[in-house]
Design a protein that fits this description.
Two copies of one chain form a homodimer. Chain A is an alpha+beta fold. Chain A is built from two helices and five strands, in the order βββαββα.
């Protein structure tokens, strides 16, 4: 998967999904968040905050969801998702029981990512 | 549920589970993390970091999992869980498909919480 954005510390990727869903990986492989140098942890939290604000602004979702598991591949990464009442899993997490067959009509994630990258490059 | 620890900004509760699982709530009801004042966001991230380190030290889990959903009740809260290869859902998230009937033998969470609270009061 090509990175939407990257620097020496982190990279951001798109998760293919019916909902807007991005993932932030550390460039170096750390197993747990507490092993990540504080400066990079703070950068990740700032990125989650920026992505959340941009998702709310662009998609007006019903809720933002954030998670870091890494049980299959022990490399710290964060998921950030814009959730909608009519998506396939709401109000369950995206890893939960499917609730319905959804057919969301959402603005293109490519345009969202362009805007996000402009915002990150400004900062 | 009685709080394990609280101050004017946050409270920490235990989620009843086979695994060590704590939740951090903001005292004031915010829907999204980006609505939480920066100072309290940073306090939450520091708490997640402290709890993660204490869980690793006390339980030697296979992985730490962290998540913030709030789809049922739109009040920002964070889950932090110590996961084990032999728990009922591993490697799936705790919201995923059950993998097995587990019978974990873990140190008591009461003792863990006492140690955590001492650590938080020192800080």
């Amino acid at each position: 998967m090509a990175a939407v954005y990257e620097n020496e510390n982190i990279r951001i990727e798109i998760e293919e999904s019916e909902i807007p869903w991005l993932k932030i990986f550390t460039q170096h492989t750390y197993k747990e968040m507490s092993e990540v140098p504080r400066e990079i942890r703070m950068e990740i939290y700032d990125l989650l905050d920026t992505i959340e604000r941009e998702m709310i602004d662009h998609y007006a979702p019903d809720k933002i969801n954030i998670a870091s598991f890494g049980n299959y591949v022990p490399h710290v990464h964060w998921h950030i998702m814009a959730r909608f009442k009519e998506d396939s899993y709401f109000p369950e997490p995206m890893w939960g029981t499917k609730q319905r067959e959804a057919s969301l009509l959402l603005p293109d994630i490519g345009e969202f990512c362009e805007r996000l990258v402009s915002r990150l490059k400004e900062a």
